Amino acid sequence: TQINPFKVFGLTTVECQLSEGETFTEIYRKFQTTIRIENAYSAKITAYGLAEGKTYYYRFIYGEDTSMVGRTRTLPKNPKNLRFAVVSCSNYEWGWFNAYEALSKSKDLDFVIHLGDYIYEHGPGTYGDKKLARKHVPSKEIVSLVDYRSRYAQYRMDPQLQALHKSVPFISVWDDHEIANDAYALGAQNHQEEEGAWRLRKENAQKAYFEWMPLKDNTHYQVRRSFHVGNLLDLYMLDERLEGRSKPLESLEGAVENKEQTMLGLEQRTWLLREMEQHHARWKVLGNQVLFSSMNVPSNLSAIKKSADMWDGYAEERSLLLKTWKNQSEKNLIVLTGDAHVSFGIDLQYDGENMGAEWVTPSITSANLNERTSNLNAWRAERFLKKPKINPTLNFINLRRHGYMEVSLSEEKASCSWYFVKTLKRPSGKCRKKATRERFWST
C-alpha cells in the first residue's frame, strides 16, 4: 500500500489486518511495519502463519484511515491443479485496461504472472492513441526517482488495475519500459547522454519498482527468483534486461555465431540451470520477457521485422540452454512470454525433439500490428505466417487483439487459453476466449 504523505503527521507505523471474512468481524492476524520518507511512505508486509489453500481478506490501517479490502489466497502444499493468468504490456496512453478488469472478475485464479512493461516511460503523446483522453503523468519522459514514483502512482490510481490487484496476488518481473525502451545492463535505446548517467536512471527505476510492486526487498534489486509449488510446478522468473544482458546487436547478421552475446549473464544462467536440475516438478515454467523461439518472417511481410532485441539476437546462449535441457531429458517445459504485443502458440523444439511449448501473451493495451497497418494486412500476415511450410512449429497466432492468457496445470496436461477484449476505446470488462492449446505431460 502507499501512504498519503500529507497525512503522516509523525505517525511511523501502518497495520495490516487479515480476516477469513470480508466484513472483518474477526481478525485472524495483525502485522505492523514502519514507513519511511526515503521509501516514499510505501508499506510492504510479509504475512506469515497462514493456513494452506485458503482465501483471506486484508486491509491496511493508518491512523484513522482504512484502505479498500483486498483478497488473496494461499496455495495448497501439494496441489493437483493450478490456474493462473499471464499479462504484459499495459501502456496507459494506448487505451483502457479492460483486460485487467475482466481478469478481476475471473473466478478461482491462484495468481497473476506479470511479465513486464507494467508502466511505460514515455512522455505524453509520444507513444499512444492520441485520440484518447489518457495522458501520462508527469508530462515528460520519466528519468528521476520522483518521475518514476509519479508514473507508478498514476497507473495504480487506475480503477481497473486496482480491481485486479485487490482480487488476486501478483508474481512480477520488469521488462524494458519500467526503465527505458530496449534496456540492457549498461544502457538502453531510449536513454540519451543529455538525460544523465544511465546508472542513476536505472537505480531510480529499480527503486520505484520495488517500492510499488509486491517483491521481497533485497539490496541488489534482484527480480529473478524461483517458486516451487509441490510436485506440480517449478516456476522461474527471469531478468532479461538489467542483470546481465549484453547490448543488442545492430542486426541479426552474425548473431548465431556470436558467442559473446548474453541475455541472462553468466551468474543468472548458471543459477537457472542449477535450479532446474535440482528440482523435479512435473511442469517447469519460465517467466520470460522476449520471444524465445525463432520464427520465419519472409521479406515480403514488410510490416513485421525480426529484432535483435529478442532471443534471436542471443542465439548462441539460447542453443546452450536448449542443448542442456535436451541432455537432461526435459520434455515438459513451458515458456511464458510477453513483450511482443501479439499472441503465439509455438511448439518448443530443438534438434528434432519436442521439448514443450512457448505461449506468448497479447498486450493489455500496447500497439498490435493492426495499429501500425490495416486490419486486412495484419490478417493476411497471420494467414501467411501460420502456413506449415513457413513456420511448422506455430500452432496459434493473432496479431490484432489485446487481452491476456489463462494457464491451467494438472498432472496430466498444461493448457493455455487466449482471451481478447472487445475494445480499448472505452471502459469495458467484456472479454471472450479465442483459442486453447494443450500440452500433455510426457515421460
Structure commentary:
The protein is α+β, with helices and mostly antiparallel strands and 443 residues long. Helix content is 18%, strand content 26%. A seven-stranded mixed sheet has the order 11-12-13-14-16-15-17. The chain has a six-stranded mixed sheet with strand order 8-7-6-18-19-20, covered by helices on one side. Helix 1 packs parallel to helix 3 (159-165) and helix 2 (145-156) packs parallel to helix 4. It starts with 12 loop residues before the first strand and ends with a strand. The relative contact order is 0.13. The model has no long low-confidence stretch (mean pLDDT 95).
Topology:
Elements: E1 13-19, E2 29-34, E3 55-62, E4 65-66, E5 70-73, E6 81-87, H1 98-104, E7 111-114, H2 145-156, H3 159-165, E8 170-172, E9 183-184, E10 187-188, H4 198-212, E11 225-229, E12 233-237, H5 266-278, E13 283-288, H6 315-327, E14 333-337, E15 343-350, E16 353-360, H7 375-385, E17 394-398, E18 403-410, E19 413-421, E20 431-440
Label this structure with key terms.
26% strand, six-stranded mixed sheet, alpha+beta, globular, 20 strands, seven-stranded mixed sheet, 443 residues
